[in-house]
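Researcher: I'm preparing a figure for a lab meeting and need a structural model of a single chain. I don't have an experimental structure, so a prediction will have to do for now. The sequence is pasted below. Please return the structure as tokens so I can convert it later.
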Amino acid sequence: MKIVKMSADDLIPETDHAYVEVGLTGLLDLLAFGEPLILKGPKGSGKTLAIEQLCSKNGVPMIRENCNSGTDETQLIGSFGMEGTDVHFCLGSLPLAIETANEHGEAFLVLEEINTLRPQVQSMVFSVADYRRAVEAPALGHKFSLKPKASLWVIGTMNPGYSGTYQLNEALR
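Model: Understood. Here is the structure written out token by token.
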């Protein structure tokens, strides 16, 4: 069986020449690869764009998951698919981020609107964001683990005051 994933080079965002730096990328650069981070701010304040431009400037792959109340294990962990008679497993954003960081040496995992994840889905993020730096893919019987020299920075974004959001549980906060 083949595991399907994108090349790390294909995950590096393009430079947006219209981007106006307001100091956020500098702050992110100082914090990079430290503790997981949640950026909270109003829609359109440049949270994601600043992350993209930092990745572009430094050649760091960025895996982005647009979270919502329907996000489930198939988006975060992965799912089986078929191409003709060949069965493959398409990596979800969590193992893709780990594999990309292992291949490239570093990567960012951005979970957009992380507070729209249902509480039971929020728990899938724990093992990637905490000291374990790994995620299980039960359907494959495989554990994807970050290599000792690889760096993965997990960043969540939140827009305050939106309906359809959940409290982040204490472990994720």
